[in-house]
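Batch queue: ligand-bound targets. Current item pairs a single chain with pyridoxal-5'-phosphate. No template structures supplied; prediction is de novo from sequence plus SMILES. Inputs echoed for audit trail.
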Amino acid sequence: MTAFSERVEAISISGIREVFEAAGEDAINLGIGQPDFPTPEHARQAAIDAIEAGDADGYTSNFGTQSLREAIADKHARDDDLDLAPNQIIATAGGSEALHLALEAHVDQGEEVLIPDPGFVSYDALTKLAGGTPVPLPLRDDLTLDPATVEAAITEDTAAFVVNSPANPTGAVQSVADMREFARIADEHDVLLISDEVYERIVFEGEHRSPMEFAESDNVVIVNAASKAYSMTGWRLGWVAGSERRIERMLRVHQYVQACASAPAQYAAEAALSGPQDRVEEMVAAFEERRDVLLDGLTDMGLDVPTPRGAFYAMPAVPEGWVDAVIERDVVVVPGRAFGEHGEGYARISYAASLDEIETALEAMRSATRAVQ
Ligand SMILES: Cc1ncc(COP(=O)(O)O)c(C=O)c1O
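Prediction returned. Tokens below.
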């Protein structure tokens, strides 16, 4: 029999799916990583118009359409004080492909990639697929990543480190001072900083600043997507931004694995980025209200939960058996262990669900907490 590659044998299907299967059909799903809002109407309409006009039938440039990349560059100028040219951006199939390109283009066989632990599941798997070795970094008590931890872990084999703010699965937002430090580390140690900014618009406290703004070298690449900000996970549209030489290398990979991002999705994302932003603001306000309800409920049960300042996840420390007891009560939450070894003893709760669902889920969590204590 033909053998499978060592790279693919080194990874497995994310454990999150098993959790979904363990819960009943009518379970309340607080395991999910996507906003429960519709894509803005003007974004949908832009895709429909492009399809009807026949503009979305063919390949676009490998980079993505010029007008989408101009809209992305405008977004970075507006929100992040970054002056990017359209040829410093590639439109990708979601933030997922953007991460893949960044790792494929920069990591050599056996090189190390420092990743937050607990952290988004793809960092570990995509590093291994690129032939690299993930090095999990524990977080501070407030679940942010300490720049000193990154700096201490750098060796001559380090190719890159990943910063994700606001973060999945913790909801933590790095301070501006931390972001400056990360940029300094990337400059001084000459390692690549992959800044995953897919939750960048969903911040309740503190402020999002990209480390690219602070770096003096071109050692920062940004991964972002329309997925979370515009509730467009199904459209599969993200982007990677960096210096021209880095983009040129990433384009080599993108050209062969993807050719170009989906054309209708590119039109939709362009409209989302350049049109009215009030839907984003409404969504963020709704998430903040739900976060407060969830946080109060968890704290009242005696659980220790660092205040999530962004994204739509909370990550309380939970007693042994708690996650199973919650799932038995038909509420899906994800064990922290699914996000890395340091996630043990935590649970990720997504509040991309209605207030009613959150209230009902809190009842189940109260009952589960009593049962396992
Ligand atoms: C931190 C983080 N980065 C990247 C992604 C990938 O997003 P996309 O759906 O755009 O591929 C996700 C999705 O959950 C995420 O949580």
